[in-house]
Sequence to fold (277 residues):
Amino acid sequence: MVADVIIETPDTTTLVLFTGNDRLEYLAGHFLTIDPHQFESLERFTSFLEDLKGRREPPRAYSMSSAPHERYLAVTVKEERYVSGVTRFPPLLSPLLVKRTLRGMRIVVTGFTGPYTLAPDVTTQTDHIVHICAGSGSVPNFSMLKSALAHHPTLRHTFVYSNKKWNDVIFRDELGRLASQHPDRLKILHTITREDSTGSFGPGVRKGRVDQALLREAIPSPTECLVYVCGPGISKFDVAAAKEAGTQPQPRFLESVLADLKALGVPNDRIKREFYG
Ligand SMILES: Cc1cc2nc3c(=O)[nH]c(=O)nc-3n(C[C@H](O)[C@H](O)[C@H](O)COP(=O)(O)OP(=O)(O)OC[C@H]3O[C@@H](n4cnc5c(N)ncnc54)[C@H](O)[C@@H]3O)c2cc1C
Fold:
């Protein structure tokens, strides 16, 4: 049952879910899935899209923004937009979850799973976790950050977070609060791509994309840290569209960060990645 609906930013909402279970067996970084077929209000739209696409609409994955030690389960969803002439089909599920889900509604969720988690023996591998996220890619990292701050006192974190605008930054206040509670263990580096006056947003807020210079600052010892990267990458739809046009798909956030990490000398087996298509 949806116990609470928290509006995080103009296009992002956290749904706090009450499951009736006292103990929830999930790891920070896990996701659950939501099948769009369960929503009567989407029925005609789902069937129409299935006719157009020639395949059944699959369940959508949503990472938990809550951490396992917290009382409630929560997911945080960013609304996908339809951009005329750019987006091939209107997005199906996220607009409903973000804009039309009310307290008291019931949702069937399936879970919990996913390989993008902190290993139980993480502290034998490193004392520094570097989170590199864009947009809703911060969701699983936020969960891992909260969990590690609570349970792994020897771990330090650097949280590099890219957004288009300052008002798009999900968990902005909570991240700030965690940084003031753990000044020696958490450093946050925001970077804003589509606003000029980032200086007025406070220290640690840069202008531009995540690039090698920013990553060099975040990663003083490339062979000793563990890096968790989450955000948009080249989707199978991008690959198909590029093939049709006879071009190569343009690297997106994930591909460009992975190339920069390689150039900085971070070993591949020290990089965990989660791809949001
Ligand atoms: C492991 C994982 C975890 C995730 N966690 C989160 C999270 O915590 N928060 C969050 O907000 N999101 C998360 N996502 C993304 C989420 O699962 C959805 O992809 C997102 O919400 C969009 O779903 P939608 O139904 O609104 O859009 P969709 O209907 O899936 O459409 C999305 C885009 O794909 C295009 N598209 C769809 N079908 C086709 C087709 N056949 N051909 C060409 N283009 C097509 C559409 O045009 C549109 O641009 C996660 C994804 C993964 C894989």
Observations:
- Residues 31, 53, 60-63, 76-78, 80, 87-89, 91-94, 114, 136, 139, 237, 274, 276-277 surround flavin-adenine dinucleotide (CB under 6 Å).
